[in-house]
Structures
1.
Amino acid sequence: MKLFVVKTLIINVFVLFVSHLHSQSAKITFAPQWMPQAQFAGYYVAQQMGFYKEAGLEVEIIHPSANIPATDLLSSGKVDVISLFLITGMSAKNNGMDLVNIAQLSQHSAIYIVTKKSSGIDRLEKLKGKKIGVWKSGFDEVPKAMMKEKNYDVEWIPILFSVNLFMLDGIDAMTVMSYNEYDNIINCGVNEDELNVFPISDYGYDVPEDGLYCLNATYNAKKEELKRFVEATFRVWEYASANKTEAIDIVLDKMKAAHIPANRVHQDWMLDRVLEMMKGSNKSKDNGRVKKGELLETDFNHASKIFGNSSGNDLKYTFEEFYRSPNQ
């Protein structure tokens, strides 16, 4: 009888200990590559609606600034995970940052080059010798590679935060994201039928963009936590897709808290376009459909070629060294 009581007591203590461990949320710090907007709606919704907590995670979201990019936050150890464009992540790794891609959210490029029809630039080759406004912080590599490969000599004009220079005809063309600056131009009073639009994906440059990255050391130390973070993130993007009004409410609250001008119509446009970029249904591979969050080796190789043409440097690593899904 005493032996039974002792065994029962030991089992109960063990169960309580395990329950205690599971009740302790693992800490993950995350930084998107830019300030609050609907491009990152899924992360805000997951944090506010408890999706990360349900996965046993305590997630803190830290935003970069104009002079401190997300890669600096990652390399300094201030965050565990960041979002980056594929080409930007590849460049950072080639420059010595030991990061790995743990999930590929975007499966397509959202970059357009736009001109006003009044400029007469109605074909891509007419951009030769013209001034093109280009966003910094990772948005410029692919357009520059395209122009270089096509041998179009253009003048790149750095743009920091607005479409004003394009509106005032200070530049001949501008690189825009389909989910952001393109809609900003329209909201400034230019009708869509007054614009020439050149999606770079139509010219052989459909390079996936937003992915999730961490340092290789973090991947090895927190593989289980990262797996839960990725799974919860994709689950909440599905929730945001089905509950857009609620998702935009949360985004607007984040923007207002950061003192960023917030426009519901524009953020709604952005969310719709970002969700479109995540669809990989028209992609295929040898062994079937593309899995959610998967980076295809063919996309990596395509981006590698563009990176090499743009920078003149070969990659110093393989696909297997770059893409490390927590599910592996």
2.
Amino acid sequence: MLQDMEYRNWISEHIKINTEFLYLNRQDILDINLSDEEITAMTKEGMVAYSTKNAEMPAKIGIHPLKDTLMHAMPANMTTLSAAGIKWGCCFPDNMPRFGYNQTTCTLILNDYQSGACIAFMDADYITRVRTAAVALLSCQKFARQDFKSMGMIGCGIQGKQQVAMISRAYPQIEKIYILDRFEAAMDALIEECQQFTKAEFIKADWETLAKNSEVIFSAAYIPAEPNPQIKDEWLNKKGLTIISSDCHTHYEDVSIKAADKYYCDSIEEHELFVTYGLYPQGLPEIDGETGEALADVKPGRENDEEFIFINNVGMAVEDIVVARAFFDAALEKGIGTKLPL
């Protein structure tokens, strides 16, 4: 991959840096059509770079305009790729019933690594969707029993659908997928979209049924200002269980989380900041390491079939920036997007 001035010179063949930038709308991003494998490899690169000190990423700060909403500023510097920028990620859980569109909306700016000038402004909804699912898949590959035949999915919006699609394609042996969402239509949409990827039976479940019958539990719901756990500790069959969360400790009792044999998170710094926001009123458990450390084989993943492992990945800007660079490069190569003046 081109780096430093060589990369900048290549960009300059396509856009006039500091005079214009490339605008990529939602359809442009979809038209670039990167594969699951490409997205997953890039996401892993970002996570490993962060946890091995080869990237610069401050913990994301945010504002919260309405109850249970968030708007997060997520900058990152991928030093190994000469890529830097910032994502502005928003989550408003009631968007669908109020306005008819998804709860998550994101935009992203890429900057020239040598001068700081804006080189791209893009919709980042799809980027957020696929990199979040890639993180879940990578975590599953490292921490779950690989012969699991049942999974649970809490949250059936765009991220839930993407996680089910990626996981079911990677694990064709899955026989049952328990799904749960506060909107019936979201569960129906997930089944309609994802059944093509799997022979598994989809089961609309309540909290107890999902908890008791899932060998791996994924979640991609909104993060309330104050956790309101719905899954009782006694429902979890902890022996060999893997929980992979994209929404903090939202669904689980504190006793369940702190019973885990291993507890990993994507960024220790970010989750320690979230403690000050009140997201973990009973404190974080002892952290065994960052997910990127396990992916880099610096820290261990699953070591036996008996372990109960809890993975808390809330999402990191390094994932967005490394994936966004790939979309940007592909757009320049394919002539996709609109050049706009600065």
3.
Amino acid sequence: MKKKTSDDHSKLLEVVLAYRSSKSLMVALHYDLFTEIEKGRRTAEALGRRLGLDRRAVGILLDANAALGFLNKRGSRYANSALSKDLLVSTSPNYKGNNLKYQEQTWDAWSDLKSVVKTGAPRLSLLEWIHKDAFTGDYIKAMGDVARGPARDLAGKLGLGRVSRTLDIGCGPGVYSAAIVEKNPRIEAVLLDLPRTLGVTRGLLKPHRHSERFAYRPADFLTDSFGENEFDLALISNVTHCENEENNLKLVKKAYEALRLGGRLVIHDYVSDSGLTSPKFAAMLAVHLLVFTGRGNVYNLKEYAGWMRRHGFKDISHKRVGVGSIYPSTAIIGRKA
């Protein structure tokens, strides 16, 4: 009994104290310490001098990241671990720092969870966050970091051979459209999002080898039309979880109108089971949406299929995406008949 109590207490502490590890890593990324170390500034003194930071505080932060396995320490000098070289140094092709920097920015929203549970509403809406000067670029780039693998997986499962024109609703970084065009370079991909977002998207997609296949449509997806009978495929990826059911029904209706006869709507998102407790990532995302959007949620397959049927879609099916990853997702597909 004593051992079980001890094990249970350890499990509690592991959850409760996890913020210390995550914040130590995120602040090190905020100051790009891993990149600076890779450039040769390998002591707390050199990093503090270069970045205008307190030398003692930097040393303590570096030691914490060494304890976590992100740095190796010898004497007073630090070096990146293999993981950090690959994922946390900004010049690495596998850099994941944009997403982690975004997580650090959302820390402020999570700190309001106590009051949000009481009132049901966050201090700032998602749109207010996006309109912050320092936030938009990191947010859009972070979504790109997360989406590249799932985007390739999804594009490979959609059967794009006969598709000539697609609409990416709430495109963000444009990663899903990029993957679709890479799969079929004959496709014209129309990317729809807010003007401020598309300013970032254009820059991210400019180096793409098929950049001429992208067209940009500035719009508010909640209030503006998507067009009529224009597209063979409409994609709504990682958007529905930011909205309530009423808004999602509007999106589905407008997507139906924008599609040609026989065209497909693909809603791609994180999907919960009927009990709302699995997968774990989806359950925790629901809390994130509570503090970050106020109106968003994680939905299940029955809800998505119901929205599609309500607005005339037929032959509704689904495909799993990113199976085996820590954030598996699902594509729900319906055909305009």
4.
Amino acid sequence: METKKFDIGVIVGRFQVDKLHEGHVLLIESVIREHKRVVIFLGVSSTLNTKNNPLDFVARKEMILQQFPQLNVMPIPDFPSDLDWSKEMDKRIRECCPVGSVVLYGSRKSFVDYYHGVFETKVLEPKDSPSGTEVRLEVSREVKASPDFRAGVIFAAYNQYAKVYPTVDVAIIDGEKVLLGKKSNQDKFRFPGGFSDPSDDTYEMAAKREAFEETGLEIGDIEYVGSAKMDDWRYRSEEDKIITLFFKSKFTFGNAVATDDLEELKWFDLNELREEDIVNEHQRLLKMLLNNLKK
């Protein structure tokens, strides 16, 4: 019997796919051929149900064991520090494999460049194998008419943290007047605003962007007024909620034109503006603005 140079082969990866593709199978089989014992460590993110990490540890473990029941599949959590992650990796390897020489395997874009532990590493790159990102994108494009598909969607919805969606609203002020907008399905006015976007570097930038998108106006001297949970009808029965960051600003340039989801814009005299003119969820913002201006 041929003696193996390394007793234990450790595969480190994420396997964030709906099923093992041919490249995964070939990689695992090649490691099995070279070692007496094979362990797979699956990276576990601290985030839940994201595009990069949609599957939890158990789902991925079961996927692998269905095809390779003889393997040991273990979790390895993400760490902010590569050094700390490497130490934890080495510790967990020795917890499940106290004796024997070890080599770690990964793909070219995997953990190898970030590992600073004591074991040797090798890069395996199966030919013509799609990336996990490509696989997930393709899977996301198809709705399947099966109970398992619907059950998976429900599982994903429940297995995530309750979220707060940050929005921005902005009072655009010109002298003694403030600009308000009205949506097509409402008979009262509101402050222009909307959801903050991942492309926004700051909430002030989000306020400036939303003001321009909804009114066509440039604004300046943006100042934070306060924040408030919004009684948004879309989220009244949901665990997730909206909290808005409210700003005041000065009109600097442009012609006010209702765009985006606003149907009408109107300048109101701040001294004559009444709560009855404002949609219920923004009446609290009006009070915050008036108190701020008094100061």
